[in-house]
Amino acid sequence: MKIKRLSVYLLLLPFLSCAEPQGTQEGDIESRVNALLEQMTLQEKIGQMNQLSPFGGLEEMAGLIREGNVGSLLNLTDPELVNKAQRIAVEESRLGIPLLMSRDVIHGYKTIFPIPLGQAATFNPQLVEDGARVAAVEASADGIRWTFAPMIDISRDPRWGRIAESCGEDPYLSSVMGVAMVKGFQGDSLNNPTAVAACAKHFVGYGASEGGRDYNSTFIPERQLRNVYFPPFEAAAKAGCATFMTSFNDNDGIPSTGNSFILKDVLRGEWNYDGLVVTDWASSAEMISHGFCKDEKEAAMKSVNAGIDMEMVSGTFIRNLEELVKEKKVSEAAIDEAVRNILRLKFRLGLFDNPYVDTDQQVKYAPTHLAKAKEAAEQSVILLKNDRETLPFTDKIRTLAVIGPLADAAHDQMGTWVFDGEKEHTQTILAALTEMYGDKVRIIYEPGLGYSRDKHTAGIAKAVNAAMRADAVLVCAGEESILSGEAHSLADLHLQGAQSELIASLAKIGKPLVTVVMAGRPLTIGQEVEQSDAVLYAFHPGTMGGPALADLLFGKAVPSGKTPVTFPKMVGQIPVYYAHNNTGRPASRQETLIDDIPQEAGQTSLGCTSFYMDAGFDPLFPFGYGLSYTTFGYDNLQLATNQLAVDGTLEISFDLTNTGKYEGTEVVQLYVQDKAGSITRPVKELKGFRRIPLKQGETKTVSFSLPVEELAFWNIDRQRVVEPGEFNLWVGPNSAEGLQTTFTVK
Predict the structure, then answer these.
(1) With helix as H, strand as E and coil as C, how does 450-504 read?
(2) What gap in Å lies between CA 474 and CA 531, rounded to an integer?
(3) Secondary structure (DSSP) of 594-653
(4) Which of 142, 157, 255, 332 is deepest in the core (most CB within 10 A)?
């Protein structure tokens, strides 16, 4: 059975060009690169390795561009200025090498999509690809041809603010979604004027920052790097991702920007990568603060010798590399290789043939873009609870109280890493409910709190009064956008300000209480979930989050999102993720929690297993979890054979039935466990997923094909192998439930 997919490409045909610029075939490109490189002076080569941000204006950089001392510019978004800068580079410099214009376009340019963590919750790679394509079309209209996305760091600590930019905790899901973003940004060909070069970041291990504190050290052994943290990056490289970015962290004492093992041995040597590698913002110079380099000259030396091609903003290359070459501490051959990678990308993007941007394009906030953003927002929302079928709202709801600091927060709804989105275009929950359903339902709005961190409780009484006059209560809580993202780590993950008090007060009045949470990370909301009749988790849903949530609340759309990361009960459980290794004494289902321990109990009376006395073992919500307005039944799990060779393919099928009252879509998930190996293996690993739409009462037979090769891992001898033995297999609605069987690899 094939899932039908709508493609945004058909909608964007008016903006796409099929013209093939001169010399874009790979053989022609290499010839042109080498011919140009032979004409360049050493200083001009070093200039190509220099990326700057014109915060002081373009005029002060004009001379540097004219002299060939700039290869790329950041953060220039006015197409007139982009053309002006390109004109200086192309028409006034000695060799006429165009600039590479770059910008952080993370989850939309003008039309803002859900944050990447929310997009991962869709489990819909085609929709994610379409979103990146929309972002590329809008950004390229302003001359931006390079974005610093996707961020595919494996993120298992929600205290880390940048989890919002990630695709979550799982290597397989992150790989699939990362590749989808690469395809969307870059399109079918980099030389298309709407193509934007993608950047796989941050290479590598940044998501494991110690304590969830941004920029912190990591301590990841090589085997874990290969089994957990490398796979999304290898997938991006194989998908043709144009560029890579190093990470801020040091791993086991070596900063990524100076790590030749990951950049030369793995990225270039093992994966045969020929794209451009750029530092993160000033990460070359920051190796001095790390204590890895004594000064910026050593930082430049170690960066280039490790395999860096371009330096972002800190200027250690442009000031030091010429002298380092004279001193034979950096070879000119290393610089040639770096510049070759930079020039190759510029040729692939068609910049030598068409460096300028058409300033008359009208593509931002196109109706097709907004429709796609609404679809992404709908599919990103996760139904965590729905007692007594509180949702969807029916015609019995004549008056709805809309309460909470996120109900009409146009700026915060867009989420983190939004440099170019405009809140004037954001459609909030309150605005959407009023416009779309206000003729059927009377809306009473009372925010209760001014913003998410507001500790003043004077407005709670007004909110309670409004709720008492309504048939149902909708409270919109969560995080302002500033509370997640880079350098926005938290030591605790509760709802900020007086939001918990607001929800508790509303729960006491006895009206149906629906809580919508918009946040950049999983929050520890166990108490709020218990107090609510229904809970929708929307992360930060972007420009069209309001209409998407309005349709979900009233049943025009049915929730299908799944958690892309485990939700902890409390911060003390972190790190908590589904694909953990077992201990020798795994947790049992007979945990004795702290309030149930009798006085003077024996030291070993709790059973001596691996759990927390105050939190138990299980999380608040497992990975892959999400409810629907309907229900689904899994049955008749079948394997074509339960014994396979290492070069075989496992064929799996089962029946999925919509057993509820609504048409809906289920994200079915396939998990596998290698029961015994040369190293301990995770208790479960995601190996596949599919979105299956079903009408009420409908049954479909769902199939997966799993090549045995995908069971390979890096073993005790640092070899990637499939080890023969017995495997467990599950298909189900999340990582904690499902039908189970076994098979054997011989």
Answers:
(1) CCCCCCCCCCHHHHHHHHHCCCEEEEEEECCHHHCCCCCCCCCCCCCCCHHHHHH
(2) 13
(3) GGGPPTT--TTTT-S-S-BTTTBSS-SB-TT--B-SS-EEEEEEEES-SEE-TT-EEEEE
(4) 255
450: its two tokens? 């001014």
Instruction: Say if strands 199-203 and 243-246 run parallel, antiparallel, or are unpaired.
Output: parallel
* The pLDDT value given to residue 348: 98
pLDDT band at 584 (very low <50, low <70, confident <90, very high): very high
Contact partners, residue 150, CB within 8 Å, separation at least 6: 116, 132, 167, 177, 178, 181, 182, 198, 199, 200, 201, 236
Which tens digit of pLDDT belongs to each residue from 240-273?
A: 999 999 999 999 999 999 999 999 999 999 999 9
685: enclosing H helix or E strand: strand 685-694
Note the pTM of the prediction, 2 decimals: 0.96
Output the DSSP codes for 544-568: THHHHHHHHHTTSS------SSPBP
- The runs of H, that is alpha helices, within 644-698 are none
**Closest by CA position to 168, among listed 182, 153, 183:** 153
Tokens found for residue 540: 């930060």
Q: What is the pLDDT of residue 590?
A: 81
Contact (Cβ atoms closer than 8 angstroms) between residue 47 and residue 70: yes
586 CB contacts (<8 Å, ≥6 apart)?
A: 609, 610
501 burial (CB, 10 Å; 0-12 / 13-18 / 19+) is middle
Contact assessment for residue 197 and residue 243, using Cβ atoms and an 8 Å cutoff? yes
Range list of H helices, 192-290: 222-224, 231-238, 260, 286-290
Buried b (16+ CB within 10 A) or exposed e, 719-731: eeebbeeebebbb
Confidence of residue 24 (pLDDT cuts 50, 70, 90): low
Question: Counting Cβ atoms within 10 Å, is residue 514 exposed (0-12), middle (13-18) or buried (19+)?
Answer: buried
13 pLDDT above the threshold of 50: no
- Of 621, 415, 419, 629, the closest CA to residue 522 belongs to 621
Catalytic residue among 104, 280, 454, 551: 280
- Structural element, H or E, at residue 514: strand 513-518
Q: How many CB atoms within 10 Å of residue 241?
A: 26
- In the residue annotation, 395 being an active-site residue is answered as no
Whole-number Å distance between alpha carbons of 721 and 715: 7
Q: What residue type is 142 in one-letter code? A: D
128 Cβ neighbours under 8 A, 6+ residues apart: 119, 120, 122, 177, 180, 181, 184, 376
Q: Is 221 helix (H, G, I), strand (E, B) or coil?
A: coil
> Is 280 within 8 Å of 202 (Cβ atoms)?
yes
Task: Yes or no: say if 347 and 29 are a contact pair by the CB < 8 Å rule.
Answer: yes
The number of residues in the chain equals: 746
DSSP string, 411-450: HHHH-SS-SS--GGG---HHHHHHHHHTTTSEEEEE-SSS
Amino acid making up residue 405: P
Question: Token digits for 183?
Answer: 């395809």
According to DSSP, the residues that pair with 744 across neighbouring strands are 643, 726
Return the DSSP state at 113: P
Give Cα 203 distance to the centre of its chain: 14
Measured CA to CA, the distance from residue 652 to residue 706 in angstroms comes to 8
Q: What is the mean pLDDT of residues 309-314?
A: 98
Contact 471, 402 (CB under 8 A): no
Round to whole Å and give the CA distance between 561 and 119.
9
